[in-house]
UniProtKB/TrEMBL annotation:
Reaction equation(s) it catalyzes: L-seryl-[protein] + ATP = O-phospho-L-seryl-[protein] + ADP + H(+); L-threonyl-[protein] + ATP = O-phospho-L-threonyl-[protein] + ADP + H(+)
Organism in which the protein naturally occurs: Saccharibacillus endophyticus
Taxon lineage: Bacteria, Bacillati, Bacillota, Bacilli, Bacillales
Keyword Cell wall biogenesis/degradation: no
Source domain of life: Bacteria
Protein name: non-specific serine/threonine protein kinase
Sequence positions that bind ATP: 47
Length: 482
């Protein structure tokens, strides 16, 4: 059937999103810039795609999958609308201002700085690793320069999730054969894809950037066209990533990360420590009154003192803790204000999950989520996505059983990066809890008499040390926009 005419300016989708103009068009559909009737001043990118009746269920399931993702290099998917009378589906995503990598490279004459290419590749690897470690793994399937957005603040995002899908090892073929010629892996033309297909596309994009946009497939001519200042270790890596046979590529995307950035020397911060993007710290209390909010406040001010804009979000609760903090510092109630600031930390009281997209889009270096006891299962998803998930409990005789019960209940979802904090616990109690939980990342915290001080690095070093900004290090991606 012919593609229906584009939506006119002023058309409203879902009684909320007003079309302002077309951002782009392609074989898969169109993307519109839309304003938000419920959040004045908020802009969205709305992806419109034609769907066959047989694909309705698949598209809806994959849209729901995308709304659960949260990573600093992925635009948040906020809404989805089932097919209308003409068979069009709409995916509402965070709008990213900036330019795509294809346009940026063209303006630079096709020759980009090597540090820029390496850091860009590292960020993309981190994002693909996040997607590939979902359960089931998510394959992006259309990685190319046009789908990599460089924000005006130097952040990068992978955009256009129109064809991303979960990898199903039980299926011999994808429902549809998708990808972009020149960047899609050979198996995609046969209707098959898995995480290694994204690796091929990354190799094609690296080759494209390393040959001033002349080649995206490994050939003798492409090898001769490689720029001479390319790091020697990267040349065989690109060739291996572009292997036609999937089993000849790297086993995991993290193997490519190690080539771009070798493991740091013990005691040194990782190369990416403090590099652009948002790091999320989620603080969950094991029981009411355990001090989770107190610790979240202290962590936020400690990170803010280290450098970088910091937000502290009271997620989806009406406990009034942030309201009381505002009264203490400002001497008056919030009166409907959505945010207030104390010593370089922006406080967001009783924020609903739907507002997280807006908060994450504001360019914060750190976002600390105060989850309380996390009674809402959807809020627990934010804990699972966080870069630093922190559980606050107690080692006391009458409370330690609660923490053990929580750990056993969440065994299947537990991750090595989870950190347990036991305020005021003695070292012997910490050792005992490590034994009972079979988990090393359990620490005590001394009394934090003034959580707003920010001078608590020593106390939080074991808990948040990997997130501290490395002094003197600036993002290569941000430097190019100076």
């Amino acid at each position: 059937m012919p593609y229906p005419p584009k939506l006119e300016r002023g058309a409203v989708i879902g009684d909320r999103y007003r079309v302002e103009r077309v951002l782009g068009s392609g074989g898969m559909g169109r993307v519109y810039l839309a304003s938000d009737a419920k959040l004045p001043g908020k802009w969205w990118a709305v992806k419109e795609t034609m769907a066959d009746t047989a694909d309705y269920e698949r598209i809806e399931n994959e849209a729901k999958m995308l709304t659960r993702l949260r990573h600093r290099s992925l635009p948040q998917v906020a809404d989805f609308f089932s097919p209308d009378a003409e068979g069009r589906v709409f995916l509402v995503m965070e709008y990213i201002e900036g330019s795509n990598l294809s346009d940026y490279a063209s303006r630079a004459g096709g020759v980009l700085d090597i540090p820029f290419i390496l850091e860009l590749t590292l960020r993309i690897c981190e994002t693909l690793e996040y997607l590939h470690t979902q359960s089931p793994p998510i394959v992006f399937r259309d990685l190319k320069p046009g789908n990599v957005m460089i924000g005006e603040d130097g952040t990068i995002r992978l955009i256009d999730f129109g064809i991303a899908r979960s990898a199903n090892p039980d299926k011999n073929a994808d429902t549809v054969k998708l990808g972009t010629i020149g960047f899609a892996a050979p198996e995609q033309y046969e209707g098959q894809s898995d995480p290694s297909s994204d690796q091929y596309a990354l190799g094609a994009m690296l080759l494209y950037l390393s040959t001033a946009g002349r080649f995206s497939e490994w050939t003798p001519e492409a090898q001769r066209a490689l720029r001479p200042d390319l790091p020697s270790a990267l040349v065989p890596a690109i060739r291996r990533m572009l292997s036609y046979r999937r089993e000849e590529r790297y086993p995991h995307i993290r193997d490519i990360k190690r080539i771009i950035q070798p493991e740091p020397v013990e005691g040194e911060a990782p190369l990416t420590s403090g590099v652009g993007g948002t790091s999320t710290i989620a603080v969950l209390g094991n029981f009411q009154g355990c001090g989770a909010t107190h610790i979240a406040v202290a962590a936020a001010h400690t990170l803010a003192r280290e450098g970088g804009r910091t937000a502290l979000v009271e997620l989806g609760r009406t406990s009034g803790a942030f309201e009381r903090i505002a009264m203490e510092w400002e001497g008056e109630p919030l009166r409907g204000r959505r945010m207030f600031s104390i010593r370089g930390v922006d406080y967001w009281p009783s924020a609903e999950r739907g507002r997280l997209t807006d908060i994450f889009s504001r360019g914060y270096r750190y976002v600390v989520l105060d989850l309380g006891t996390c009674s809402d299962a959807r809020d627990f998803e934010e804990f699972l996505r966080a870069d630093a998930p922190v559980i606050v409990g107690s080692a006391s005789e009458w409370r330690s059983g609660d923490l053990v019960a929580f750990a056993h209940r969440e065994t299947l979802r537990a991750r090595p990066k989870w950190t347990y904090v036991l305020p005021f616990a003695a070292e012997e109690a910490v050792r005992e809890m490590r034994r009972r939980l079979g988990h090393k990342r359990i620490y005590s915290l001394p009394p934090l008499s003034n959580p707003f001080d920010g001078n608590l690095r020593d106390a939080f070093e074991p808990i948040l040390g990997s997130l501290y900004t490395r002094k003197g290090r600036r993002s290569i991606l941000k430097l190019v926009f100076r």
